[in-house]
Structure to design on (1353 residues):
């Protein structure tokens, strides 16, 4: 299919849709030519020194290899880590914070509780705005939104001068109770704009007007901190694309799993911080729905970490309060749990002779010993090599090769210290790595109150397929579904995503028939905001508006989100809303209180503009035994045995085989343990079921 | 012998089970105490009832070394599906005050108990004299609520309704108690299921041996930490500001002896049990978890990979004389033992700080003050009770960095409530919430700053309680030339003509418009402050952590127009003589100990120890009343003679024993 003739044919009337996801080591491309249903995927090493350059390299390679034509690209969706890297590397803009006098330390105190609470050395990260750039402005809003002290504009003027003198590039304005009334913030912002038009200003209420001063301030600060770099990057990207003749306006993936346009991305940068992990889950949900799978645990293993998420009813789950480093991001985000164990995690033996894995990682540089880039210490990937699961083909589209000798040497060092055979040591490293992930997934499941035995595991990313089946068995799961292109699920997620804007108002009132008019009015205002937002994104087709409320029993200290039917609001049916809350509470917490008074904290609205209805090619299933490419020796727990190795490309839909086996493909390798029945479905997913 | 290569796999499965239990409880509990304050624990226990795994992210930090064996033994004939419980601080020494209700459940495999799951919740109220069952003023356990000695709560899966009815009749918020207890039972069931899955994976023998190996591993890690310390004996004492409404200091004393890989913590010389609820009911258990919480912090700080389980406690032996504040006899009240426990931790930190001065921080603020307000909402005329933020102070300065500001060290588990939430729910208005200037102990590394909070009320007779306040007189100490930190305080209407300083008092009644300001202590400093780089001092000044005056006085850094005056600084620093001695306590304690010398305390304890237990606190109080103008052992003797004269009924003391024991 890669012939020049086919390529030319495609080029003439092509309709290319391209999703791109920039990760830590690689940038992934997933391209679909919509007329022919042709799918192409690609990985290119990232260029941290010149972000965006690798993107152009990738597009060029796509053109050369796959007949892609940039001028016939109708959709270009892009996820970038530039925002999150700016925070983690602390390379953001110098900012000043204007907040109420008397409350200047709120961002340093955070919520007091610290991780690692058994250590006398526990500490918080330094705030992104140091204390000497925090300016207390005499001003006070009451909880009901009335003003008890107007902002002291003379203090604002003095503070602007001081902030400028200290090199601030932008100012964040965050006042108490701006969730209820943002007027004080807005008036201070306009004064700053007049005094110092060269400074950018974000107010906490315009970024995300939610109650809880620390979380709201933190979200606004994150937005300002990454703003100059993100907007600079996006401007350069637009120029590069234009110069290539691309007419499609780039769309950006968001932490909420949806999309926004680049103009929005330059302003609301905070929305893209977790887009990489979010679009992975969105891509996985899409694949799951396509295959008719309803409940999925995703597993994305990279070099330094493993990410997990639950998909329930075919939909990603959402949460707020995800952490960026140590800073909470309080916008709605696709819920993803993470643990610092990945293919590069280093194995070591402690003083008492106990073998451990992580948290130290060899990362992508130097990487596992077997990459031959100077890594000397044994990693999880090296253990996979020693056991024989890895090292039978090139990896990462030929950009990596495996030196089994180096892996043996690294694991052998540990084996000598433990006094064990090298294969046994390698197996123990894998068992420990899996058990570390087991802890994290068990926590996720108990938080969500779900039974994982009803779920299917979907491994993706470069490393997910290596350990996915082992983890699934440890968790008592019965099925694994591995997509055809596990390396580009995040890029696919962008490709299939919808436009999605989230809007919130904090109401904070008891739920009763009397409070419904105010709630309805708030929803109407949000709906208007939502429609305006979609129009600004260039979406003029029908909009889907999803309503929900954050509610709690009076006296509780946190809320749960309850989906609302517009009908209940239209009919002023407070009882139906209450019942929905009781039901959701029961579902999440195993109890409800039918007599409990209910409080409504926030109303939320998601405005969704559907993306194009894409479908990937399907093939008829032919019931047949798959034929292995060759047989290889594997150490599978007790002894070395010879197992089948399959080439993923040659596996026809409907073909079956049994584990233990290895499946290799251009971007990953599947380890399939004994006692597994494997089958390829018509979407080319590889389905594993475990005999119990 | 369990294969140690796979020990981490077993450890991870055990931890997953514990985390699973914690999340289940946290998710399904009803009360704010469990859900928000996270005052709960869950654990997996071996066949003997010794804890072998705890969660690391949720819950309180106190019980990884708790053993349930005595409580387990007080109930007969366990069957599958049974759950036993107790909240009695004087039966089995599992519960340590009445609100803490502990549950445990046997895990059966093929008819045999292979393990136990257990845990505790802090019930909002267990009845008794005051709401929430906790007050420093209570004097005997019977005032602190209803007590249940160890007994079955659930029989073969069925709750004993009689017990639930008795509890419901006696407590103020029965729905919360029952809801939380049922949530904890759910968590124990989860743990049971997870343990049974572990047994299936590892085999019964493999599981039992593996659990033993986990305890042995923690023990070996603890012994390695001790072995890395020099052998020797170190003494240290610290004081709680007030022992009761009588307001005399309460002294805790520790003689720490490290020999090889073992340590003895001898608390002889600590004050007699108190006529208040500040007693710590250890039952004299040489490895009671309450006595060793400070040790967990030290071990974990020195080796963050240490496994937290009962194995850690094996190399340690605690000596707590019967009738002392750390081993009170029935019916001493114990409700507010948290305050004493904070001081107990600082005594342990102080002793270990002398053993390994290079590796441990100075004293943390050590006052984990919980503030509650009861007021009237003027809009609805309804009475409102709400928890306002905890006011805790900074961590002690560390060997290589400043102490954490505002909280940290052994207070890092506490969480605050957003001001916007409090103001929306409760008719109070905050005036200030932030860090207190000049409150961190000066040092080469500065102690963490104190927290300062002020709020205004609007209704008459608004009642404030500020539990666990301490350190308003005895400062958190500095080490190795570092200075002691700023003191805690509570002031009504600060800076006005009707200002009222409340010192260590933990309650206040406010009238409309009154402002209450609560300040915590700070963390102690570490190392000579004159060695602190001037740029760091300048940064502290710029950030408002330090006034220029304090910078000059404490650090010898002179400021001129906001900039460091290098020449003046060099001149001032040239005259500086570094302080000698390991600790710096501040003028208050130095003044106090000029009167109450170590020898005076030895005499006091010799006198008191000779009395029957129920006379000791009375006699202590009467001696303190007569110490004005008296100092040292002679002063104590003279005061005691005066007490004997006033109270001829006082049992004649037996002849004073020789000091050597």
């Amino acid at each position: 299919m890669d012939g020049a003739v086919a390529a030319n044919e495609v080029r003439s009337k092509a309709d290319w849709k391209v999703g791109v996801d920039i990760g830590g080591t690689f940038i992934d491309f997933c391209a679909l030519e919509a007329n022919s249903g042709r799918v192409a995927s690609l990985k290119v090493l990232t260029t941290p020194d010149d972000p965006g350059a690798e993107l152009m390299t990738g597009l060029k390679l796509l053109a050369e290899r796959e007949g892609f034509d940039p001028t016939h690209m109708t959709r270009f969706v892009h996820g970038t880590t530039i925002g999150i890297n700016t925070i983690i590397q602390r390379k953001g803009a110098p900012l000043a914070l204007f907040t109420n006098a008397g409350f200047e330390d709120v961002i340093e105190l955070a919520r007091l509780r610290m991780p690692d609470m058994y250590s006398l050395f526990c500490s918080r990260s330094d705030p992104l705005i140091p204390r000497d750039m925090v300016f207390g402005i005499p001003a006070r809003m009451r909880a009901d939104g009335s003003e008890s002290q107007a902002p002291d504009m003379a203090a604002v003027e003095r503070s602007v001068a001081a902030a400028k003198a200290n090199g601030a590039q932008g100012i964040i304005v965050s006042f108490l109770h701006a969730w209820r009334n943002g007027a004080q913030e807005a008036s201070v912002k306009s004064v700053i704009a007049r005094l110092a038009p060269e400074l950018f200003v974000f107010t906490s209420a315009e970024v995300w007007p939610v109650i809880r001063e620390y979380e709201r301030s933190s979200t606004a600060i994150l937005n300002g901190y990454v703003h100059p770099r993100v907007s600079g990057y996006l401007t350069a990207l637009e120029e590069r694309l234009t110069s290539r003749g691309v007419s499609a306006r780039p769309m950006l993936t968001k932490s909420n799993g949806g999309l926004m346009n680049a103009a929005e991305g330059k302003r609301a940068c905070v929305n893209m911080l977790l887009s990489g992990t979010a679009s992975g889950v969105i891509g996985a949900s899409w694949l799951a729905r396509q295959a008719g799978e309803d409940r999925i645990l995703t597993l994305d293993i990279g070099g330094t970490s493993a990410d997990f998420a639950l998909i329930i009813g075919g939909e990603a789950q959402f949460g707020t309060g995800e952490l960026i480093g140590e800073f909470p991001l309080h916008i709605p985000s696709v819920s993803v749990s993470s643990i610092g164990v990945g293919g590069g995690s280093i194995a070591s033996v402690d003083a008492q002779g106990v073998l451990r894995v992580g948290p130290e990682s060899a990362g992508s540089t130097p990487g596992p010993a077997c990459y031959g880039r100077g890594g000397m210490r044994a990693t999880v990937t090296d253990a996979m090599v020693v056991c024989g699961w890895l090292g039978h083909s090139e990896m990462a589209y030929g950009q990596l090769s495996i030196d089994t000798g180096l892996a043996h040497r690294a694991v052998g060092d540990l084996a000598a210290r433990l006094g064990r055979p090298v294969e046994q040591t390698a197996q123990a490293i894998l068992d420990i790595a899996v058990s570390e992930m087991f802890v994290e997934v068990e926590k996720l499941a108990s938080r969500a109150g779900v039974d994982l035995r009803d779920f299917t595991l979907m491994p993706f990313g470069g490393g997910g397929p290596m350990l996915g089946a082992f983890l699934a068995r440890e968790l008592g799961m019965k099925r694994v579904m591995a997509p055809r292109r596990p390396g580009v699920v995040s890029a696919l997620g962008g490709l299939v995503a919808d436009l999605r804007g989230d809007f919130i108002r904090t109401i904070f009132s008891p739920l009763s028939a009397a409070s419904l008019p105010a709630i309805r009015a708030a929803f109407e205002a949000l709906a208007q905001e939502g429609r305006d937002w979609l129009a600004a994104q260039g979406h003029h087709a029908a909009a889907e508006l999803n309503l929900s409320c954050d509610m709690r029993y009076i006296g509780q200290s946190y809320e749960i989100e309850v989906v609302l039917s517009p009908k209940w609001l239209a009919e002023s049916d407070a009882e139906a809303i209450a019942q929905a809350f009781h039901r959701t509470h029961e579902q999440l917490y195993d109890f409800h209180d039918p007599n409990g008074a209910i409080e409504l904290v926030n109303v939320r609205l998601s405005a969704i503009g559907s993306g194009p209805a894409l479908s990937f090619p399907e093939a008829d299933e032919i019931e047949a035994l798959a034929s292995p490419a060759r047989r290889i020796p594997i150490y599978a727990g007790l002894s070395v045995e010879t197992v089948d190795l399959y080439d993923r490309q040659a596996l026809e839909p409907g073909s079956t085989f049994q584990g233990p086996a290895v499946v290799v493909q251009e971007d990953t390798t599947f380890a399939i343990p004994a006692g597994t029945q494997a089958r390829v479905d018509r979407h080319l997913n590889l389905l594993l079921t475990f005999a119990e | 012998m369990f294969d140690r290569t796979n020990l981490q796999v077993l450890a991870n499965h055990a931890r997953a089970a514990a985390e699973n239990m914690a999340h289940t409880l946290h998710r399904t509990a009803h009360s704010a105490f469990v859900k928000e304050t996270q005052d709960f624990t869950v654990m997996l226990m071996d066949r003997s009832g010794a804890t072998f795994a705890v969660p690391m992210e949720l819950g309180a930090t106190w019980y990884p070394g708790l053993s349930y064996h005595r409580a387990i033994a007080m109930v007969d004939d366990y069957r599958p599906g049974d759950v036993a419980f107790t909240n009695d601080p004087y039966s089995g020494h599992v519960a340590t005050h009445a609100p803490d209700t502990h549950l445990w459940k046997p895990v059966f495999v093929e008819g045999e108990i292979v393990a136990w799951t257990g845990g505790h919740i802090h019930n909002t109220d267990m009845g008794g004299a005051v709401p929430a069952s906790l007050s420093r003023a209570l004097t005997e356990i019977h005032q602190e609520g209803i007590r249940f000695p160890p007994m079955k709560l659930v029989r073969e899966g069925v709750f004993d309704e009689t017990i639930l009815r008795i509890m419901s009749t006696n407590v103020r918020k029965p729905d919360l108690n029952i809801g939380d207890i049922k949530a904890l039972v759910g968590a124990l069931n989860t743990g049971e299921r997870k343990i049974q899955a572990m047994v299936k994976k590892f085999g019964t023998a493999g599981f039992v041996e593996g659990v033993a190996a986990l305890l042995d591993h923690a023990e070996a890690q603890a012994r390695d930490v001790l072995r890395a310390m020099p052998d020797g004996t170190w003494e240290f004492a610290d004081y709680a500001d007030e022992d009761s409404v009588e307001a005399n200091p309460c002294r805790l004393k520790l003689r720490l002896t490290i020999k090889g890989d073992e340590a003895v913590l001898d608390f002889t010389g600590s004050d007699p049990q108190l006529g208040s609820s500040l007693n710590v009911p250890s039952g004299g258990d040489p490895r009671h978890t309450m006595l060793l919480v400070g040790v967990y912090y030290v071990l974990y700080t020195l080796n963050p990979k240490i496994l937290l389980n009962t194995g850690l406690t094996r190399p340690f032996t605690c000596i707590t004389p019967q009738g002392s504040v750390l081993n009170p006899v029935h019916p001493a009240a114990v409700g507010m033992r948290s305050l004493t426990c904070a001081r107990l931790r600082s005594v342990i930190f102080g002793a270990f700080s002398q053993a390994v001065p290079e590796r441990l921080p100075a004293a943390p603020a050590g006052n984990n003050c919980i503030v509650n307000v009861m007021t009237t909402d003027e809009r609805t005329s309804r009475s409102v009770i709400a928890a306002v933020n905890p006011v805790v102070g900074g961590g002690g300065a560390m060997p290589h960095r400043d102490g954490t500001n505002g909280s940290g060290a052994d207070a890092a588990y506490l969480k605050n409530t957003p001001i916007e939430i409090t103001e929306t729910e409760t008719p109070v208005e905050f005036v200030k919430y932030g860090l207190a200037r000049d409150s961190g102990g000066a040092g080469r590394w500065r102690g963490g700053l104190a927290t300062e909070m002020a709020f205004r009320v609007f209704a008459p007779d608004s009642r404030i309680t500020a539990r666990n306040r301490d350190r308003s007189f005895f400062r958190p100490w500095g080490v190795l030339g570092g200075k002691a930190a700023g003191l805690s305080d509570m002031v009504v209407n600060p800076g006005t003509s009707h200002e009222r300083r409340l010192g260590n008092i933990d309650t206040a009644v406010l009238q409309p418009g009154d402002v209450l300001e609560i300040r915590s202590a700070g963390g102690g400093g570490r190392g000579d402050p004159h060695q602190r780089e001037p740029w760091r001092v300048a940064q502290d000044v710029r950030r408002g952590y330090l006034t220029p005056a304090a910078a000059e006085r404490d650090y010898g850094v002179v400021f001129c127009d906001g900039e460091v005056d290098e020449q003046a600084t060099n001149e001032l620093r040239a005259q500086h003589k570094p302080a000698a001695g390991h600790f710096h306590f501040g003028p208050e304690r130095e003044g106090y100990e000029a009167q109450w010398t170590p020898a005076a305390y030895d005499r006091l304890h010799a006198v008191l120890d000779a009395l029957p237990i129920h006379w000791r606190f009375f006699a202590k109080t009467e001696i303190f009343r007569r110490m004005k103008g008296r100092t040292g052992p002679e002063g104590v003797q003279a005061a005691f003679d005066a007490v004997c004269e006033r109270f001829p009924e006082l049992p004649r003391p037996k002849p004073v024993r020789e000091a050597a024991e």
Notes: The two ends of chain A are 41 Å apart (CA to CA). Residues 1-7 of chain A have pLDDT under 50 and may be disordered.
